Request: fold
Amino acid sequence: MEDLILLETIEKYLSNQMDAQEKTAFELVRKNTPEIDQMVVEHAMFLQQMDQYSAVKSIKQTLTQTHQNLLERGEISNSNEDSRGAQVIQLFHKYKRVAAIAASVGGVIALFISGLALYISPVSHNSQIQQLSNDIAAIKKSQQYQGKLINEVKSKLPAGVKFISGGSGFLIDAKGFIVTNAHVIKGTGAIVVDNNGKEYVAQIALIDQEKDLAILKIDDADYTSKKSLPYSIRKSTTDLGEEIFTLGYPRNEIVYGTGYLSARSGYEGDSLSYQLQMSANPGNSGAPVFDNAGEVIGVLSTREAQLEGVVFALKSNNIYKVVNDYNASNEGSKDIKISTRSNISRMSRKKQIATLESCVYYVKSFDK
Reply:
């Protein structure tokens, strides 16, 4: 009985039938109870599937009705009398009206088949999952916003380049190695910007499309290597319900966000990712996800397009895998050495953020 009441409450919440006080109270329960939050997410996905099924049924009914109308008007036939073959007896222009009708029916059939395939097969990531990188329009807006600064300080951008995409990134080695999402790096070069607005030229060291991770190396005489990083990168998995926070660049200045881990796997059970309950916007791709101890537990990458606050982050152990790939192909003094110790675990959140800001970068990818 309690389960039925809970489901009724969730449906009431998802259909916006709660008043402001009820909604606030339910969202507080949702925030503090990961199991209920997961039920909300799953029920919302179920309702989406039902809507898709309804759309398919509607298309099928339209197709059936269209077919029946054509039969009644004598424009098509179910007869198979001429099974031995057909001969062309008049020129095409005499039947162009029938051909147009047939083309229309073909279009409806194609829509029906596509809808049926969408219903039967797994939902496409392209329609349900949104990457958190910035598009060209957002980058241009950023350029306009920072126009005065770019005019006052000589930019590191090569002449004649155009921005393709942007996102966030963070140091994994004090020598200037930065990790971000592979989908952030859509161009042939990159510029990274620190929290003070200072630009640095970066080289693309490695891109792993399968894991959706990329490694950049700051290659700029103005960059001063840090002695060490204040945080570590976690190898083990994270507990369900653990509080997390992030720093990234969904706008032209660094932005802080907080939430908790709501599932140990990502979209449709993706074992490479976590599901998080938090807000994230375009530009957050590549941002680090920290636990309370200041350890990196993931890299923000995507969000559910239709569900508010459902975000996915690549697990931090994937960073070790791409770093091992890089080191295996680049033996020598430029090997990446990941920090395994956090120096900010006992700090307050404000002090943690103040320490971490200088390690998180705005990543801009460009093409010539």
